[in-house]
Specification:
Blueprint: H1 15-44, H2 49-78
GO biological process, one term: protein insertion into mitochondrial inner membrane
Organism: Oryzias melastigma
Keywords: Membrane, Transmembrane, Transmembrane helix
Length: about 80
């Protein structure tokens, strides 16, 4: 199957590259949302110091991983 070539000679990214890009974009957005929501929820229940940083970091990784997974699934469906 021939590779599609763009107007300036560059080739299109492969399906795996698109899935990786979707995961990275989703992970970045999820980390930002996790930072906001995690900070608010940890401060609300009274965490301070090291406990606060651990709670916010855990929330950021969880939301980043979740959103990145769904974005990569969506990009996989598109290609």
């Amino acid at each position: 199957m021939p590779v599609a070539v763009g107007p300036y000679g560059q080739s299109q990214p492969s399906c795996f590259d698109r899935v990786k890009m979707g995961f990275m974009m989703g992970f970045a957005v999820g980390m930002a949302a996790g930072a906001m929501f995690g900070t608010f929820s940890c401060l609300r229940i009274g965490m301070r110091g090291r406990e606060l940083m651990g709670g916010v970091g855990k929330t950021m990784l969880q939301s980043g991983g979740t959103f990145g997974t769904f974005m990569s699934i969506g990009m996989g469906i598109r290609c």
